[in-house]
UniProtKB/TrEMBL annotation:
<keyword id="KW-0847">Vitamin C</keyword>
<feature type="domain" description="Prolyl 4-hydroxylase alpha subunit">
    <location>
        <begin position="147"/>
        <end position="327"/>
    </location>
</feature>
<feature type="region of interest" description="Disordered">
    <location>
        <begin position="1"/>
        <end position="25"/>
    </location>
</feature>
<dbReference type="InterPro" id="IPR006620">
    <property type="entry name" value="Pro_4_hyd_alph"/>
</dbReference>
<keyword id="KW-0223">Dioxygenase</keyword>
<protein>
    <submittedName>
        <fullName>Uncharacterized PKHD-type hydroxylase At1g22950-like</fullName>
    </submittedName>
</protein>
<dbReference type="Pfam" id="PF25238">
    <property type="entry name" value="OGFOD2-like"/>
</dbReference>
<keyword id="KW-0560">Oxidoreductase</keyword>
């Protein structure tokens, strides 16, 4: 069976190489766009009908040029940016074509995936809570066993079996036709990206109509506007399936993790600390660890930056999960400018608390110095109070 990797790491189209020998490649480093924009940079004009991409697109990308390219002439800069854009557009086009090919050839077990109304799979109690659209109505059906980890039942029981049967059918068909299966990540050998197999419309509707209202209430810092992309996939972990992932953060703002099936004991989900982009490698204290036994039928909603992973010590536990990673490019843009996320990042909150303590200590020290300087001439009651509190 052909396997199509995640394509985020070496699986996608590559830019045409300028150099032909290994020696030249070694001498010339590959230039990449800068992660931080140069807002001082004055853009060139790219109003030229011979250019493939519009002036507006090129000018917005120009401030991310690597410093080595800033001094190049307009045509060289346009070529550099066009090569990068071409890479992404060709990848998107290739994925779109493959999806169309799949839909035109594959006969799904459940024939309604491509235009299904998600309501048909959802529990009446969940639908009623979303329809009422208040925090009180959500809390009626949702528990929060740990801060910002929300657990609830949302799907009817037959939904889980429908997804599992469909994935088995896709695998069998892909095996027979040598159609490449896109995996959720480069390490997965058994997972399936559901979006790639025609479930993207269903999942998008699910997010827009049912997950986003919850996120607006429970994760207000992320959900000012609708998510603009998602990554939906099916994973199986266990002895003869993919190994369970240890602690990690998702490349998402919000993650919905639905347990479709579980066999044997163990296999808890472990949550660690929550971290902003700047602090994502900062360790968290053991007290931040929270273990949750995820049972079939339950959905867990959490921040993608809430460090989490499966308990990897019990490898016999089989689990099948549907994961929906919801992304907001607006939040990511905002995150590059905002410096403090104390309301949800544990490390930001800790640093803010330390700064506040230092300010209070410095003020206190200043007051004591004033009091010591004034001692002898006047001995007001508040001076006595400061001296006593110092002890
Ligand atoms: Zn932080």
């Amino acid at each position: 069976m052909a396997v199509d990797g995640d394509e985020t790491n070496g699986g996608g189209d590559s830019q045409p190489s300028v150099n032909t020998t290994a020696e030249k490649k070694k001498e010339t480093p590959i230039l990449r766009l800068s992660l931080v924009p140069n807002n001082e940079y004055v853009s060139d004009s790219y109003d030229d009908p011979n250019l493939v991409y519009s002036s507006c697109v090129l000018r917005s990308l120009e401030k991310y040029l690597p410093p080595e390219i800033f001094s190049a002439n307009r045509n060289e800069k346009a070529k550099f940016m066009s090569d990068i854009l071409r890479k992404y557009f060709s990848k998107a086009k290739r994925l779109k074509n493959r999806r169309q090919e799949f839909i035109s050839k594959y006969q799904p077990s459940f024939r309604g995936w491509y235009d299904i109304d998600p309501k048909l799979f959802l529990l009446p109690s969940f639908l009623e809570a979303i329809s009422d659209n208040t925090e009180a109505s959500f809390r009626r059906i949702i528990s929060e066993p740990h801060p910002s980890v929300f657990v609830f039942q949302m799907f009817q029981p037959d939904f889980y079996e429908t997804v599992i049967v469909e994935v088995e059918n896709i695998r069998k068909w892909a095996e027979e036709t040598n159609f490449p299966i896109r995996r959720p990540n480069n390490m997965s050998k058994h997972g399936v990206v559901l979006d790639h197999f025609g479930l993207d419309i269903f999942l998008k509707k699910l997010i827009q109509e049912f997950i986003f209202p919850l996120c607006k209430v429970f994760f207000p810092e992320v959900c000012g506007t609708m998510f603009d992309s998602h990554h939906g996939f099916f994973i199986e972990t266990g002895e003869d399936r993919d190994p369970a992932l240890g602690l990690h953060m998702d490349l998402s703002e919000i993650t919905l993790n639905v347990c479709l099936k579980k066999q044997f004991e163990g296999g808890e989900i472990i949550f660690g600390g929550t971290r902003c982009k700047k602090h994502k490698k900062t360790k968290f204290k053991d007290e931040a660890i929270f273990r949750y036994s995820h049972i079939p039928g339950q959905a867990i909603l959490h921040r993608g930056r809430h460090c989490h992973g499966a308990n990897t010590t019990r490898t016999t536990c089989y689990r099948a999960n549907m994961i929906l990673c919801c992304n907001s490019s607006l939040f990511r843009e905002m995150e590059t400018y905002q410096k403090d996320f104390s309301d949800w990042c544990g490390q930001c909150a800790h640093e803010t608390k330390v700064k506040e303590s230092q300010i209070i200590a410095a003020r206190r020290e200043g007051m004591i110095r004033i009091e010591d300087g004034a001692r002898g001439s006047t001995d007001k009651p508040w001076h006595v109070y400061v001296r006593r509190s110092k002890k």
